[in-house]
Amino acid sequence: MRQKGFAAPIISITIIAFAVVLAAYYFGKLPISKTLQPTPATQNETPIPVPAGFSFIIRYGAGQGDVLDTSEGTYTKDMVMDPSITIKMLLSDEEKSKIYQKILEINFFDYPNMLEVPHPSSTDKNSISSRLCDAQYELKVVANAKVKKVNWDGCVPVGGIPKGGQVDRFEKLIRYIQTIIESKTEYKKLPAPRGGYL
Q1: Which residue in 21, 113, 167, 172 has its CB near the most CB atoms, within 10 A?
Q2: Residue that wins the pLDDT comparison between 46 and 54
Q3: What is the arithmetic mean of pLDDT over 163-183?
Q4: What does the alpha-carbon distance between residue 79 and residue 87 come to, in Å, rounded to a whole number?
Q5: Are 90 and 73 in contact (CB under 8 A)?
Q6: Of 98, 103, 76, 79, nearest in space to 87 by CA
Q7: Nearest-CA neighbor of 166 among 85, 106, 84, 104?
Q8: Domain limits, the chain
Q9: What is the pLDDT of residues 126-167, one digit of tens each?
Q10: Is the Cβ–Cβ distance between 153 and 142 less than 8 Å?
Q11: String of b and e for 58-78 (b: at least 16 CB within 10 Å)?
Q12: How far is it, in rounded angstroms, from Cα 83 to Cα 186?
């Protein structure tokens, strides 16, 4: 009888404590273990599928002498004073997917065939006479039975390219592809060209 009388308060206290913990959990008074918290899905967590037949040719540099052709799996480097060198260069599926995603992000297929930075008035300090033109760029993309080619003469006012515009986004896409090219082991093995362009 003594044991039953002693056990009853313990059971009651245990029930009350459990109820308090349960209430605190539901009303957010206790931290929830991070392992139990759902991880929100991040944007673009899954790579965008590349359509069958997707390929592109990028030409850049002075006279567009540097060329990556993913349909042929080749890269050509302009050696300036010597004959150009062409090597095999293949992009991984992940690299193609990321490039294709960026192509879609900038609405590349809605671009004009010729890009040009708006020229300031002739009285402006950044007028057409004060533009810098150090390279030319061309990107031809084949995807979903569409073919789109965009050219840009690379000329910009001394003040720079207007942020957020088509030229700005196109240049960032070009730079992104160039970064991938220059990260390749086969690219790093190429000799440096003799001389340069003015």
Answers
A1: 167
A2: 54
A3: 96
A4: 13
A5: yes
A6: 76
A7: 106
A8: 1-38, 55-188
A9: 444 456 777 899 999 999 999 999 999 988 877 788 899 999
A10: no
A11: bbbbbebbbbbbbeeeebbbb
A12: 18
What burial class does residue 154 get, using C-beta atoms within 10 Å of its C-beta: 0-12 exposed, 13-18 middle, 19+ buried? buried
Instruction: Give the integer Cα–Cα distance in Å for 64 and 125.
Output: 29
pLDDT, tens digit (0-9, with 9 covering 90-100), for 7-16: 444 445 445 5
pTM for the full predicted model: 0.71
Q: How much is the pLDDT for 77?
A: 97
Q: What is the pLDDT of residue 21?
A: 44
pLDDT of residue 22: 45
What is the fold of 55-188? Mago nashi protein (3.30.1560)
Angle at 149 between CA 145 and CA 153, to 5 degrees: 170
Per-residue pLDDT, averaged over 92-112, amounts to 97
Residue with tokens 């006012």: 157
Residue 145 contacts by C-beta under 8 Å, 6 or more apart in sequence? Answer: 53
Query: What does the block give as tokens for 64?
Result: 């567009």
Contact 190, 153 (CB under 8 A): no
